[in-house]
Amino acid sequence: MHAIRIDDPSDLRLADYRDLTDVRLRRMLEPAGGLYMAESAKVLARALKAGHRPRSLLVQEKWLGDAEALLHEHEGVPVYVVPAGVAERLTGYAVHRGLLAAMHRPELPAPAEVLAGARRVLVLEDIVDHTNVGAMFRGAAGLGADAVLVGPRCADPLYRRSVRVSMGTVFQVPWTRLPGWPAAGDVLHDAGLHVAALALADGAVPLDALAADPPERLALMLGAEGDGLSRRALAGADTVVTIPMRGGVDSLNVAAAAAVAMWALRTPGR
């Protein structure tokens, strides 16, 4: 393992890890640089298992053994070993999990490739909160979704916080980006999917009614926090579904709603 000890947070070799709390900067840097951040040994292990390639690692001394175990098939990847204080000054936050990895972004597959044979698909339109995106991927993995599709304006599933909240399941569930509407609807229908939109709307079907006789192949679509699905997305849906609520509450957090609906509409036998 190529371990390099660095005590200066301004060292140019650490540029990939600098000021990670600046969301605007990361949005500009990550797609342009072709990188994303994996935080913690567990998340990195899932990324490596999915075939993703590390560019470098940033670790504290006590985590060096974990880094060595993970990189046994990746010779020559630099491992920058820094004190905890240097890591915090560098990234802008306390790196409690002890390990960060700058990873090369894989090329996203075509939607048709991701949807081939999929029976349960989660579609995210304009979900802008990275925590919700990560939580929805974790729910998709845990509740048996075959794929996740994200719209053009949806938050980046490979943003550091999304990856962390998902516990690395963004590497486990096949995903890619959809085009905008109405082209997105054509992609879903051409794949043979029944599109169910989760929304508060007149004439919406209660979730338990759809779950009593679910389509064989189903795409469950959810929209932005607050505004919900766009009119174009709703127009492209085959069914509009709502979760019946009690206690004067009209809706759930979007990640919670996705989990409830995915469990109710799960593929029989899973």
Characterize the structure shown.
With 270 residues, this protein is α/β, with parallel strands linked by helices. The protein has 2 domains: 2-104, 60s Ribosomal Protein L30, Chain: A (2-Layer Sandwich); 111-264, SPOUT methyltransferase, trefoil knot domain (Alpha/beta knot). It has 11 helices and 12 strands. The protein has helices spanning 23-33, 41-49, 64-70, 84-91, 111-115, 130-142, 160-165, 183-190, 207-212, 231-235, 254-264; strands at 2-5, 35-39, 54-59, 78-81, 99-104, 120-124, 147-150, 175-177, 194-198, 205-206, 218-222, 239-242. It has a 7-stranded parallel β-sheet. Strands 1-4-3-5-2 form a 5-stranded mixed β-sheet. Strand 3, helix 3 (64-70) and strand 4 (78-81) form a beta-alpha-beta unit. Helix 6 packs parallel to helix 11 (254-264). The model has no long low-confidence stretch (mean pLDDT 88).
